[in-house]
Amino acid sequence: MPDLSRKQLIKSLILAAAAPALPSGAVGQQPHSQEISLDDLRAFGRISGVAFTDEELGEILEGVREARAGFEDARSRWPIEFRTEPRTIFTPLAGGSIPGAVVRSKPTRATITKRPSDEDLAFASVKDLGFLIRTRKISPVELTTLYLDRMKRYGDKLLCLVTLTEELAMAQAKKAEDEIASGHYRGPLHGIPCGVKDLFATKGIPTTWGAGPYEHQVFDFDCTVVRKLQEAGAVLIGKLSMGSLAMGDVWFRGRTKNPWNPKEGSSGSSAGSAAATAAGLVGFAIGTETLGSIVSPSIRCRVTGLRPTYGRISRYGAMALSYTMDKAGPICRTAEDCALVLAALCGSDPGDPSAVDRPFTWPVRIDFSKLKIGFMVPEILSVCVKT
C-alpha cells in the first residue's frame, strides 16, 4: 500500500464526509439543500489541523460536490433502511445456535411477602414485584399507575423520559391483570412496568435516537426486544432518554441527570434507562452497549446493569452504533433481576443473523461455603498504584 501524506489522507476523509452518516431509509433525515462552499472546506481544514491553499481547496471542492451528488443519487435510487445490516455478518460463536438450548428463569424466594408502602414498592426488585403480582397482593394496573405517577413527577426533572406511553401501558396492564386472574401467568415479568432506551423501534410511537432531526420519527413495527417484552407480559410505560445517536448522556432536551446527584449527568448512552431505574420510575429498563453504555450509567446511578455476550439478545430494530459490537441488555436493581430479564429476551432471531440460541439457566446452584471472596484494602491498593 503506497504511503499517504497527511494532506492526501485529509482529502480522502473530506470526500468520505460528503456522504450522510445514516442510511437514507431513516425517517426524519433531511436532505442536504445547501451547497458545499470553500468556507466549509476551510473549516474542515482548521478542525483537522491541516492548511490547504486556495488552489488545493478548489480541486477538493469539485471532488466533494461530485461525491455527494453521487451519494445522494445512489440513495435515492436504492434506499437502505436503518435495520439493514452490512453484508458481512459477524458470527459470535462457532457453530451458531444450539437446537433446544436450555433457558430457565425461575426466581428465587421473594424477600417481600406482603404489600409494602408505595415508596418501598417503587424500589422493589423485579423478583419481589413478580411475587406480589402472582400472589394477587398487588395488581398490574395498580403497579402501573404507581410507576406512571412517579414518571410524571420525576421524569422531566431528571430528563430521563422522552415519550410517556400511558395509554399503551394501561392497556397492557389491564390485559396482564385479566390473564393472571384467568390463570394464565406468563412468568416473572408478567405485569411489571418497564422502559426501553429510545433507539428501539416501537410501532406507532416516536423513536428519536436522542437526536433533534429524528424527534418525530415513527416506525411501523416493533423491534425484537419490544416484541419479546410483550410476549413476557411486561408493561411498557415509556421510551427513555439516550445520548444523541448513542453517544454520551446529552440529548435534544438536555442532559439526563443522576438521581442521586442531579448536578451531574447520569453518564451514557443508556442514560435514561439507568436514571429511571435508580429513581424508582420503572421496574426495570433495557439499554444497549457498544463500549460502556450500560456499564457506565449503571455505575454512575448505582444500579445493576448486564452487558450480555454479543449475540445473546437480538438487535433487530435497534439503531446501530457498531454492527459487530452493539449489545442489548437489562438495567435493573439486582443481579437476579437482570438474569430474569435476560432469560426473557435472549435467543436467535430471523431479523438478526448474529443472535444465537445458547444455554442459560437461573438460578445457578452454587455452594457458597466453597467460595472465596477477595477485595482490595486501601493500603494494598496504594502500594499497587505506586509500584
Describe it.
This protein is an alpha/beta fold and 387 residues long. It has twelve helices and twelve strands. It has helices at residues 6-17, 38-48, 54-77, 118-122, 126-134, 140-158, 166-181, 224-231, 271-278, 295-301, 335-345, 378-386; strands at 103-105, 161-164, 193-197, 235-240, 250-251, 254-255, 257-258, 261-265, 284-289, 304-305, 327-332, 360-362. A hairpin with a 2-residue loop joins strand 7 and strand 8 (261-265). Helix 1 (6-17) packs parallel to helix 3 (54-77) and helix 6 (140-158) packs antiparallel against helix 7 (166-181). The protein is elongated. The relative contact order is 0.12. The mean pLDDT is 88.
Structure summarized in a few sentences:
With 387 residues, this protein is α/β, with parallel strands linked by helices. 36% of the residues lie in helices and 12% in strands. The protein is elongated and about 80 Å long.
- Counted by DSSP, the helix tally is 12
Strand percentage lies at: 5-15%
Helix content: 25-40%
Order of helices and strands: HHHEHHHEHEHEEEEEHEHEEHEH
From the N-terminal CA to the C-terminal CA, the straight-line distance is 42 Å
| Model regions low in confidence, pLDDT < 50 over at least 5 residues | none
The largest sheet is: 6 strands, mixed
Order of strands across the widest beta sheet?
2-4-3-9-11-10
Please state the average pLDDT score: 88
Molecular shape: elongated
Q: Radius of gyration from the CA trace?
A: 24 Å
> What is the β-strand count?
12
Structural class: alpha/beta
